[in-house]
Amino acid sequence: MSTAPNINRQRQALLRSLPSVSALLEHEEVRDWLNGLPRSSVVAALQSAVQDTRERILSGEITNEPDSHDLLARAEADLLVRSMPSLRRVVNATGIVLHTGLGRAPLCDAAIEAIVEGASGYCNLEWDLSTGARGSRSAHARSLITSITGAEAATVVNNNAAATLMILRTFAAGKEVIVSRGQLIEIGGSFRLPEIFEAGGAILREVGTTNRTRLSDYEKAITDRTAIIMRVHPSNYRVVGFTEETSIAELAELAHQHNLIAVDDLGSGALIDFADLGLPDEPCVRASIEAGADLACFSGDKLVGGPQAGIIVGKQDLIARIEKHPLMRTYRVDKLTLLALEATLRHYLDLDEAIKNIPTLSMLRASTDELARRARELADQLAQAIPGEHFFVCSDVGFAGGGSLPAKELQTVVVQWRPEHVSVALAMKCMREAEVPVIARVRDDAICLDLRTLRDGDFEAVVDAIITAASEADDPPRSGISLPII
Ligand SMILES: *Cc1c(COP(=O)(O)O)cnc(C)c1O
């Protein structure tokens, strides 16, 4: 039986046998790394491999003499992780078209080209080419936004939260804003309407009850301190059953009778009529302006399908006052956003062009036949690449948006994989940690790859990630309930 001093002596011997970083740097393999990578990164990776092994010797985890090949393998894995950008492409197999965690709307080709072209060199961001004098950055998207929405004027800020805040700061600081209790929303990522009101210096006057708010409730709440009557689209939840909401047309009429401003926070803000396209209905910006809203605001990266932005449309004099507010400077958007936004919006001048070219719209509109055809193609590729695993094409119900959009159900098609030799949790982890990470969803203890958000160019990455995941081994998988196979 070994005694404590013996163990210590053994560990000391193992520590002494650890190669030094300078010795490791002499390996041919490491010299190759130095050809492509900064010396400081290589040294850091070697140091951390040595340090890690030292700790594992001291804890008793390693009892054999450390092998320099193991050390180099560790350092190489470390270098690979370190050399990868933190923010990078992932494959969205969740089926959630507007997933805030995955960057919401993928941009259309025209937006990407505009960014590359306009941002690789200089651009006329604040330069009026006709006069040769200083211009305004918000002028660029303005005429497109007004012609698409029918509004008199428009301006762009960083996101819709900033848009709401700018409206409150400009018109309701120290004054009251009337909002229906049923619309006091919290959107994922800590956007809570009452808190935005507080930050905007406005006093929130809640009216009605959670499920019913009548025009008379708003009317009774008007005082000489009231500045705004506001409707907020309850984007991520629904009040169902015995409900009553007051339309923006009625609210606008009431506001105007009392010389108040009617504001419509549309959330997603559809630029085209979704019901006409056979999609779940969504408030349309043009309809809100036509109904009399003085100001409406919406996100650039939800249903519009563009870059992150907050778009404010409405009456010329009101927009001018917002633009003159000193805080506007803190919410202004950069050239990348404006380049992408203008290119995206241009597609909306022609409905067919918009549907064809804007990825969010084509994903939302994809038919189940089309999704099933592509699912069979992916399932075939997977089955061929990974013998012994089974991939089924199943129908399922997906959602349009994550925290940022109505929980609207969409009939969809998935490739379902219940791994033979690995748990679902471990397989999901491997897929997430693949070279191109693949984010899927789990249902009934099976991994579901939703074709609605998978693009053809993603198939290769999905196959690669699943090859790696399938070769992992841990507890045997449990069986679950099956989705209907189609
Ligand atoms: C999403 C949403 C917001 C926040 O928009 P961001 O562009 O994410 O800042 C505000 N209001 C409503 C109703 C929304 O749906």
Features:
486 residues, alpha/beta, Aspartate Aminotransferase, domain 1, Aspartate Aminotransferase, domain 2, 3 domains, seven-stranded mixed sheet, four-stranded antiparallel sheet, 17 strands, 42% helix, 16% strand, elongated, binds pyridoxal-5'-phosphate
Explain what you see:
- By secondary structure, this protein is an alpha/beta fold.
- The protein folds into three domains: 4-83, no CATH class; 91-98 and 364-470, Aspartate Aminotransferase, domain 1, CATH 3.90.1150; 109-357, Type I PLP-dependent aspartate aminotransferase-like (Major domain) (Aspartate Aminotransferase, domain 2, 3-Layer(aba) Sandwich), CATH 3.40.640.10.
- The chain has 19 helices and 17 strands.
- The chain has helices at 4-17, 21-25, 28-36, 39-58, 68-83, 109-119, 139-149, 160-172, 193-199, 215-221, 248-257, 285-290, 316-324, 335-347, 351-357, 359-365, 368-385, 424-432, 459-471, and strands at 91-92, 127-128, 133-134, 153-157, 176-180, 186-187, 191-192, 203-207, 226-232, 261-267, 295-299, 310-314, 391-399, 409-417, 438-439, 441-443, 446-450.
- It has a seven-stranded mixed sheet with strand order 4-12-11-10-9-5-8, with helices on both faces.
- The chain is elongated.
- It starts with a helix and ends in a 15-residue tail after the last helix.
- The relative contact order is 0.12.
- Residues 475-480 have low confidence and may be disordered.
- The structure holds pyridoxal-5'-phosphate.
